[in-house]
Amino acid sequence: MNRLLLLNKPFQVLSQFTDRDRPDNPRATLADYLTAPEFRAAGRLDYDSEGLLILTNDGVLQDQLANPRHKQWKTYWVQVEGNATTNACRALEEGVLLKDGPTLPARCRLLQIPTIWDRNPPIRYRASVPDSWIELSICEGRNRQVRRMTAAVGFPTLRLIRKSIGPYSVDGLEPGQHTYVEPITTKIGNNSSKRSPNSVSKRVRARSTRHDERRQSTHDD
Question: Where are the beta strands (DSSP E) in 49-121?
């Protein structure tokens, strides 16, 4: 049976089962939190980010969730340095210019301090520097995109939590906890602006095309 595994990935954990870059002094990996030999991550979440990571045992589902051409909305709770403003949110919604080009239109709103788990270790506290939270939703998958976007509007990211991908959410999961769910079939519309993402194809494109596009999808947002 094709299923999805939803994991609340803790801070400073790799989104893979082994640390190939540091075999002699490995960092924490998914293997420290679950045993799922047939499952692979659908996209990535950076070592220093937290929240929802989806794994699946089905290649088509993996492509639908991770490939940028399907434009799944991904929602993040972002703690930023400084008091975020509605003008900053508006700029993020309209798209900001990064070194690798302008971002697509996004969704953004100011957020009250959310009721969430404590991070271990916590962010560095500085009494002289305020911080605040925003909720940011994007449908791209560039390398460290959310962090670069908030920095571009003057509010560096201090903490980044992925809350949801499409209809799947991290709600109810503590760091390191996971659950299995059945795939949700949704009709996804066009996403040329802030509308719902493009309809999900059930066919996987040729390997060469998929490889080129997945170079982006393996990164955190």
Answer: 50-56, 74-81, 97-98, 101-102, 107-111
